Amino acid sequence: MTCVSVVAFKTVKGAIVTNKPQIALALLASILISGTANASLIGDTVDANWSFLAALGSAAYQDTAVVGGGIEFTSNVPANSGFFDEADIGDSSIQLTYRLVGIEEDPFQAKRWRFTDLDWVGMTGEIVGVIPDPNNPAGASVFTFGPDSVEIDLPTLGVEEGEPVSWRFDLVTRHVPEPATFALFGLGLAGIGVARRRKRPA
């Protein structure tokens, strides 16, 4: 995302003079918006595991991965079977997939994925909502979520080889500027105050 600051100008006796308070506000907005736009899960280290819903006390799969441009988590349970569960984490989304390999058709068993340590790179943030894609196949649901974690239930579902089934979930986040950003914001407000005092008539 590209952030654009709009600078206001006014004409005084034929000369172009910048409006300092408006410039300061535009720069502050640019700083805050830029930080939010650059916040992403890409580059973060995430923990993931899943359990069959019939045996939630025991994880059938668990791993840790750095979020990048491809699929971060792939499990083959039972081992050497044709059942592959995949999790692809984007900059602010999670996509889960059932993929069958070497078997014409068979059902995947219902399971619960858990993702933890979802920390945004570029700006501190927390998850405040999870929105399923409206085009998702039926049956999947968000079990729960926290500031840095998400748990998603997937259904028992018959899948054919070559026709994987995927569900996408978008993460709604609230971002908190870093201390350095707050410092810049404070300096900007101070500058606005000085500019206004200078404009007051004696």
Description:
With 202 residues, the chain is an alpha+beta fold. The chain folds into two domains: 9-39 and 178-199; 45-175. It is 20% helix and 44% strand. It contains two helices and 14 strands. The protein has helices at 20-38, 179-199; strands spanning 9-12, 15-18, 45-52, 61-66, 73-76, 83-89, 93-100, 105-108, 111-116, 124-132, 141-146, 149-154, 157-160, 165-176. Strands 4-3-9-12-11 form a five-stranded antiparallel sheet, with no helix packed on it. Strands 5-6-7-14-10 form a five-stranded antiparallel sheet, with no helix packed on it. It is elongated, with a radius of gyration of 24 Å. It starts with 8 loop residues before the first strand and ends with a helix. The model is unreliable at 1-18 and 27-36 (pLDDT under 50).
Low-confidence stretches: 1-18, 27-36
- Estimate percent helicity: 10-25%
Give the terminus-to-terminus CA distance: 45 Å
Supply the helix-strand structural class: alpha+beta
- Overall mean pLDDT score? 81
- The global form is elongated
Beta-strand content estimate? 35-45%
Biggest sheet: strand arrangement: 4-3-9-12-11
